[in-house]
Amino acid sequence: MESFEFNKIAGAVLATALVVFGLKELSAAIYHSETPEKPGYAIEVAEAGATGEAQAATGPAVSLGTLLASADPAKGASGAKACAACHDFTKGGPNKTGPGLWDVVERGIAAHEGFAYSDGMKARSAEKWTYENLDAFLKDPKTATPKTKMVYAGVKRDQARADIIAYLASLSDAPKPFPAP
Ligand code: HEC
Question: What confidence category does residue 52 fall into, taking pLDDT thresholds of 50, 70 and 90?
């Protein structure tokens, strides 16, 4: 009966192996995790000029002219450090991730030499960067210019935004007058 004993043991070993293998397959099926096709990280760019205080969104809306009249270009220059990762501000400066911004006020939209604008920006090329257009774009780029490739959340605080716009306005040989308050 030795071969019968052997068969019993071999059978038990085989059965165990099958169970172990089966469990492995089963757990792989249960705990299977999707690997994303393109691993990536969302990059948050700090909001220019934000110092942590929340915008007083409840107050009455102040006109852009009024905000610009009391804007501080020096504060705007420091707020615009958030833009400098992608934009050059000097006269004749190069295009970086974004187009050069020297003398951008009243410049045609999507008009900077040698920059490959998004279709969304090109669709607005009949317009100019008036103070109002700049203000709306910098507040919420994606809403003001759908499909823009400027990956930036926007500057939500009205005064911080006006400071940056006043700074942009100063980057010109002939700064354009602010709109009336
Ligand atoms: C992460 C990079 C990035 C940051 C940060 C950024 N921009 Fe831009 N910006 C772009 C790109 C890219 C474009 C071109 C957008 C398009 O073609 O849709 C652009 C376009 C613009 C334009 C339109 C220029 C033109 O020639 O029509 C203005 C104005 C502008 N940015 C201002 C700013 C200001 C001001 C800040 C900071 C408050 C800022 N951007 C922050 C990348 C950036």
Answer: very low
Q: Which CATH number characterizes residue 155's domain?
A: 1.10.760.10
Measured from the Cα of 108, ligand 1's closest atom is 27
Contact call for residues 145 and 35 (beta carbons, < 8 A): no
Residue 98 domain boundaries: 64-170
Tell me the whole-structure pTM to 2 decimals. 0.74
Q: Rounded to whole angstroms, how far apart are CA atoms 96 and 109?
A: 17
Q: How far is the CA of 37 from the centre of ligand 1 (A)?
A: 29
Q: What are phi and psi of 128, to 5 degrees?
A: -115, 165
Structure tokens at 163: 């400071």
**What spacing in Å lies between the alpha carbon of 107 and ligand 1's midpoint?**
14
Lowest mean pLDDT among 13-17, 28-32, 118-122: 28-32
C-alpha to C-alpha distance for 131 and 106, rounded to whole angstroms: 8
